[in-house]
Records
---
Amino acid sequence: MTTKTWTISNILSVSRIVLMIPAVYVLATPSPFHREIAVLIMLAAVVTDALDGYFARRFNEISDFGKIIDPLADKVSIGVVVVMLVIFGDIPLWFAVLALTRDAIIFLGGVYIKAKTGIVLPSTMSGKVTVAFLALYLILSILQYTYFAGIMIPLQWLCVMLMGYSLAVYSKRFFYSLKNSNNKGK
C-alpha cells in the first residue's frame, strides 16, 4: 500500500467527480443529442472507474485515500445524476431517495469505522455490481429510448434488490468490524 495521495488511480477517481460538471451542463442544456452527449461523458466516467482500480493494482497504488475517494466518486456521480433525473421527471422520487439514502448510510458508516478503528474498508463486490446496474438504469433513463421501455421497470426493481442486498452486506461488515475492534481492546 502506498502513502502517496496523487497517484494515477486517485487522479482518475477525482476526474470522475469533475466529469459530472460537463455532464450536468450538457444534460441541463437542451439541444440536439444533448442526452446522448451527456451519456458519452458519463461513460467516460465509468471507464475511469474501471481504470482506477486497474492502475491501483497494477502499479501498487492502493492507498487509504484511494479507498475513500473511489467509492466517494461513485456516490457523488450517482447522486448528481439521480438528482438531475428526478428534477427532469425521468426517475421516480422514491427511487432517488432510496439510492441516495443507501449511499449516505454506506459512506457515513465507512467514516465512522475509520474514526473508531482507523481502518478504511474497501468497496465490496456487491457494491460494485450494484453501482454497475444502477449506472445502466440511469443511463437508459437519460436516453429515454422507447425500445428500452420494456426493461426499465424490471431493471429498476433489480436495482432496488441489489441496493438492499449490498446495504445488508455493508451493514454486516460494519458491525463485524466494530465487534472485532472492540474485542481487540479487551
Note: The longest helix spans residues 149-184.
---
Amino acid sequence: MHETIAFARVEGQVLLGAQDIYARGIAAQAVRRRIGMVFQQPNPLKMLSIFENVAIGMRLDGYGRAAIAERVELSLQAAALWDEVKDKLDHSGLALSGGQQQRLCVARAIALQPDVLLLDEPCSALDPVSTFKIEELLVELKQRYTIVIVTHNMQQAARIADRTMVFMVDRTQSRPLGVLVEEDVTNKIFTAPSDPRTEEYISGRVG
C-alpha cells in the first residue's frame, strides 16, 4: 500500500505463499491483483455506479465487456448483494446503506478473485443488523478465500474465525512495538489460552 512513498520504510518480510512481496523486482500492481482489501469505513468510489465500482479492477486489467458483466454479477451474488441492487446497477454506490456499501466493497475486492482477502475492522462503522450480514458473508467466503480480518470485537472473532492471533503493544521498549502474543485455533484462544496476557485481555482485566 505504501511502497511508492519516498519516506516509507519496510523491514522484514511479508510472504504471499513463498514469495516475499517486498523483494526487489516485485511489481506492486501484480501483488494488488492477488490481495483484496476492505477498509474500516465503506468507501465506494464516488463518481462510479454500483456496476462500475465492481467492474473497475477488471477494466484496468483489460477484461472484455461480456466477461466484466458476468464477473460483476457473480461478485455481487457472492457478496450477498445482487438481489438488492440488480435493478439499479447504474445508480451511485453512495445511494446504498452503510452495510450495503461495505458488501459492495467486498464485491469489488473479490472481483479479480484474489488469493487473500484482507479486512480492517469492516464492521466497526455498521449497525448490529449490517454487522450480522457481513459476518454471515465472511463465513461463506472463507470457504473460497483465505481471509485475514483485524477486529477489536472479541465476540466477532470467536464467532467467525478459525484461527486467532493476539497482538499487543510492548510498552517496555523505548519505541513501543506491536508483538504477537499468541496464535492458535480460536476455540482454544478463548477457552484455554496459553499466555496469561491473552487471559487478562479476554477476561477484560486489561484492554
Note: The beta strands are 15-16, 19-20, 35-38, 116-120, 146-150, 163-170, 177-185.
---
Amino acid sequence: MQRSSEVTPELHSAGTTVLHRSPFDDLEVPASPGPLDSSVRDRWVKPFYMAVPDNLVAIEAHLRPLLPEVSPELINTLLASCDWRPRSVGAFFVALDRRSDFEALVGRLLLRSDVCYAGNVYCVALAQLNTPTAVDFLQQYLRYYLTRHDLWFDQAEALAALRYLDEVNGTAHARAFDQLWRDFASSKPNWNLTQTCSRFNATLRGLESFHAGR
C-alpha cells in the first residue's frame, strides 16, 4: 500500500493526519479498495471502536454474544480498512483471542503507522501475543520512531508494551531504550511514561478479567 502525497479531508477523518516517510513504507499490508461495507461498520465497528482496548466493561454485554462470529475473514477485513476505527477493532480481536496468525500483519501495521489512534491497540495485541517476533516488532518500532522527535505517535505505548513483556518474561529489553526515550521526551513535557505504563498494564489486566468471565 503506497502512502498518499496529500492529507485530504477523507484521509484526515480516517486517521491519516500526518504524512511521513519511514524505512517501513514498503512493508506489504492489505488495503481495501473502497470504504468498509456499512453492514460491517454498523455491526462491528460503531459499537466498539471508542471503547477498545481500555474500557471493556462498557461493551462487554454487547460484545460477548457476538464473539463466536469473530472470524479470520472479519479480522482481515477490519485490518485491511484504511481507517483507524476498524483497524482498532480488528487489532483488539487479535489481542482478545491471541490470534498469532495475525501477528505479522499487526506488527507491520505498527511499523508503517499509516493512521493514528490504532497504534495503541497494535501494541496491546503484540503484548498479548508475547512471542519473540512480537518483541522484535516493538523493538524495531522504538529503534526508529524514538529518533523521530517530530512524530508524536505511539512511542510511549510501544515502550510500555516492551516494559510489560520484560516484567512478564523476566527480560530487560526496554533498558536499551532508556536514553532514546529521555531524548525523545525532552521536548514533550506532557508525556508521562509512568502513567502510560500504568494505563497499559491496566488494559492487559482488563483483558485477563474479560477472559476469566467467559
Note: The first helix runs from residue 9 to 14.
